[in-house]
Amino acid sequence: MTGSGPHAGVNVSDQQIWQEFKKGEDTAYAFIYKNHAQDLYSYGTSIANDSAFVKDCIHDLFLDLWQRRKKLADVSSIRLYLFKALRNKILKEKAKRKPLRAEVEDNYNFQFEYSSESLMIHNQFSEERRKKLRLALESLTQRQREAIFLKFYKKLSYKEVAAVVGITQKATYKLLARSIQMLRNKMISIILLFLTIFS
Amino acid sequence: MGTNIVKTESVIDLEGPERRALHFDKKHMEYSKFEVEDFIMDPFFQKWVLESDEMADTFWKAWLLDHPEKKAQVEEAIGVIKTLKFKNNKLSKEDFQDLWKDIIADRRTGQYRLSKPRIPVKLVWSGVAAAFLVLCLAAGYLFFGNPIFSHDQVAWQTGFGEKKEIILPDSSVVILNANSKLQYPGAWDDDQERTVQLNGEAFFSIIHKKNNQKFVVHSGDLNIEVLGTAFNVNNRRGSNKVILNKGSVRLDLSAMDWQEWTHQSNESYLLMEPGEMVVVDRDEKEISKKIVNPEKYTSWTEGVLIFDKTPLEEVIRMIEDNYGYAVYTGNLNVRELDFTGELYSTELDLILEYLSETFDLKVKKENKKIMLIKDD
After folding, report:
1. What's the total number of domains in chain B?
2. Pick from B90, B191, B249, B372: most CB atoms within 10 A?
């Protein structure tokens, strides 16, 4: 016994945190928020481009977690569980207020950034080309954008993406492949600009 | 803690070490047939581009030296993957903190921002809690002697540790606490008094009728008449406790020998205002009224137990009444120890754990008996 608290070690497993949280342990609750709030927010805003709305969803998600903590099933990955739960909440709430938010929905402002290595290229991008890329990304369905976000931004495995989005692994692979193909067709001229990255 | 921590593998299997090993032999061949899309979709390739994994880096650099003809495709694939980085929307430090503060503040009150989960309409509870375990059993006897399960009567009995939400024929709502019984007719005529009989503890949220139809709870020999909308009754151990959250109720003492009791008024009626608690203490033969925080007494309906300098004796009584255990305390001075805190659970084991931590007690639980022993 070292006398250190349960969260002092780096190697506390998700299951352990989850168990303590289910027992009503405040520190575990805070730990979960601290470790996942940012991720949830960036994932949330990839599905719904409305910061206040996503924050409300995260707020309610954490309230739900607390109120239902005793009934929650065990999880192997807290992050995946939260992603899935947030996704359900956002889609449910969006469906409810569809008439109100239709505008936001249609004018989805697809956002992306350039990694630091490609910043140089970024600067070379003309406004027109950037617009083209954005249009290409915008032409994807919400589901395609989401899958791409989880796969390439959050670096989830196919299996994990499948679990969050709620489709089979095979369907996930297909969904992503189709999205990539669509993007590539539209972006081909832009992509050529990246040829200098690797040299 | 910390000694038997098990680090768990994430759920990945496709991209586990086995697959990585594959890439060094079998896959090595396949990659030469890859097109741009195939590279983009390949997890091992993604790993290289996105995570600068050392192993992947070594592999791909070597592979490219062997396959210079694939350089263009590989570069394009890298370009696509890198372009696919979304804008990383981040919570500002303030937003991160504020959101957390709100969560903490709202979690207990259940103040949802978008939509509340299935929790029913916020009802105003007024509670009369009159409880005594022994008396409850005695009363149960009486009930069984009478035709309480006749065709026009409905009776609900909760077991230990059980809680039940009941909707009465007039749509009023009752939440029956553990080890309690509620009985009422299958229907009430409009010109008839609405009456129910309670043994144990319950929260009532009563619908007000346009014709001012009376609602009366018979709780032992105390009758509680509802004038307002909602109230909470508890009768256990020969005492009655009525806590009023909202509306107004009138206590009818006429069926009791109240004249011989210590009582601040000499009326056979007692009117209650919201936020008041009336205790009818059979042992002391005393009727007293005081101002309380009703939430403290009604939080159990939402699965929360609030203790505010609550004597250990009272906590123990609650455990015995609601969970059906006999609690032995040895030479523990249960009257002098008190307990403050909020417990977001009504699970007995958690309550015991909480007690054990607070008072340094060893807890033994077996055969419907609980022993609390001072840990020396």
Report:
1. 3
2. B249
